Task: inverse folding
């Protein structure tokens, strides 16, 4: 087993554990490494980093694979974009300012952002800071997702653009996860502190917690920032992340596993990190207190999800994944420089496997095989391409294929109506309405998302041309 692990580690660029890690034999690091490397190979994850703490002690941190196309190995110091794990940092900043009396959780948002307006002005005035923290503002998940491609403006400009956004539930009534809630909190932090969001987070969280590889923008990164990867028709390829400013509070902070272990220690110890307190004990406890019912035994707190004694949050950007779990005295963080939205459950299972090993059990988790999924998708793509090519060819050769039989014309008209007009229209109109806007699909499902849009557009264009020709043919037949 040891020899197999060494060979697999070499293939993925697994760095050797530090001497500090080796002094803690109570953790089965070989089994953890073996599990992570095996899962990475199966899911085609280029690089990952893992950190484990207990109480106020670092137990283990490790880098796996490579950080980018140049094959630089991932280390615990490698920085990743941490996605929605950023929300707990935003909540921590709010609670720090609450401790200082500069933010009141019961106060209206407009007390800090007088210009803030949504489509319903009356509802805008009822929106309180606590509603944003608990994700009970009434802002929808859909609108939060839509904002992901509109975050290249500063926070204030981003929030000012929400004037036409409508609440889908009454303020304070039910949980609805929306990135917009935490973007608005970012604006409140700027207003209450008199600093930019990233300056505040750096000065009051990153620096006190010795998070030297954590940043508010890729432009500020001074160490190695992992390149993000996405599957393009099953091939894991590096992709460029869009610019984000206004959406940093909800999902685009940058950190490393080494830094995140310090952060977990503070979270596990009521805001204290080795004698430095970043928030009051009362506020630290309040951040983890269940507030808004989600599903089953899950409740949303403040930037955290709570399930009995497990406190956690995951984060997905267009090309990175992260998850942090606090359970009892233990804290575990996992960062990867890839994401596959067809197999997001398998990414979640990585953390479950590590947790089981940490507690002396076998991983016993189900890691899906992406190759099978993309084989099916590939077959569907080929069928769609074949029909599209046939549809274009029959349009080009229309005159030579034209028939004067009324029945055949009707049958052809039904085919065009169904396959060239109805189905493409359903895809083009319903997909963005029921799921997310096409602009978001293009970013988060590179290749497949573009295919899903382009093919229906081509079929619809061909269908419209054929419909005109069919009508002309029917008229000629009637004459």
Result:
């Amino acid at each position: 087993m040891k020899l197999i692990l060494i060979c697999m580690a070499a293939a993925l660029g697994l760095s050797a554990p530090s001497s500090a890690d080796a002094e803690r034999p109570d953790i089965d690091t070989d089994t953890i490494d073996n599990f992570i490397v095996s899962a990475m190979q199966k899911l085609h994850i280029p690089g990952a980093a893992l950190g484990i703490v207990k109480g106020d002690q670092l137990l283990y941190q490790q880098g796996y694979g490579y950080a980018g196309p140049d094959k630089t190995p991932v280390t615990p110091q490698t920085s990743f974009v941490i996605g929605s794990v950023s929300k707990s940092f935003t909540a921590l900043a709010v609670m720090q300012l609450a401790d200082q009396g500069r933010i009141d959780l019961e106060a209206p948002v407009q007390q800090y952002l007088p210009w803030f307006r949504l489509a319903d002005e009356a509802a805008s005035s009822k929106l309180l800071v606590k509603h944003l923290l608990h994700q009970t503002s009434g802002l929808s998940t859909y609108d939060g997702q839509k904002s992901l491609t509109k975050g290249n403006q500063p926070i204030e400009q981003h929030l000012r653009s929400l004037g036409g956004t409508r609440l889908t539930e009454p303020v304070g009534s039910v949980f609805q996860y929306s990135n917009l809630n935490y973007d608005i909190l970012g604006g409140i932090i700027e207003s209450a502190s008199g600093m930019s969001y990233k300056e505040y987070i750096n000065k009051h969280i990153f620096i006190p917690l010795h998070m030297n590889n954590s940043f508010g923008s890729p432009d500020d990164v001074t160490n190695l920032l992992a390149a993000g990867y996405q599957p393009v028709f099953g091939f894991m390829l590096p992709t460029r992340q869009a610019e984000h400013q206004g959406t940093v509070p909800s999902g685009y902070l940058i950190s490393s596993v080494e830094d995140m272990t310090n952060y977990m220690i503070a979270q596990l110890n009521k805001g204290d990190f080795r004698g430095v307190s970043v928030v009051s004990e009362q506020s630290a406890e309040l951040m983890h207190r269940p507030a808004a019912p989600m599903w089953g035994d899950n409740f949303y707190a403040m930037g955290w999800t709570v399930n009995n004694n497990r406190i956690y949050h995951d984060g997905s950007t267009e090309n990175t994944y992260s998850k942090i779990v606090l359970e009892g005295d233990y804290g575990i963080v996992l960062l990867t420089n890839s994401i596959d939205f067809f197999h997001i459950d398998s990414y979640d299972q990585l953390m479950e496997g590590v947790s089981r090993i940490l507690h002396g059990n076998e991983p016993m988790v189900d890691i899906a095989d992406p190759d099978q999924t993309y084989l099916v998708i590939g077959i569907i793509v080929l069928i769609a391409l074949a029909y599209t090519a046939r549809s274009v060819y029959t349009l080009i050769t229309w005159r030579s294929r034209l028939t004067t039989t009324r029945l055949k014309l009707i049958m052809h008209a039904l085919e065009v109506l169904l396959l060239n007009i109805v189905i493409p229209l359903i895809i083009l109109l319903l997909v963005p309405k029921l799921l997310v806007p096409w602009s978001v699909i293009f970013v988060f499902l590179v290749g497949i998302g573009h295919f899903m849009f382009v093919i229906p557009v081509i079929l619809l264009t061909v269908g419209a041309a054929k419909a005109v020709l069919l009508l002309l043919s029917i008229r000629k037949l009637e004459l």
Observations:
- The two ends are 82 Å apart (CA to CA).
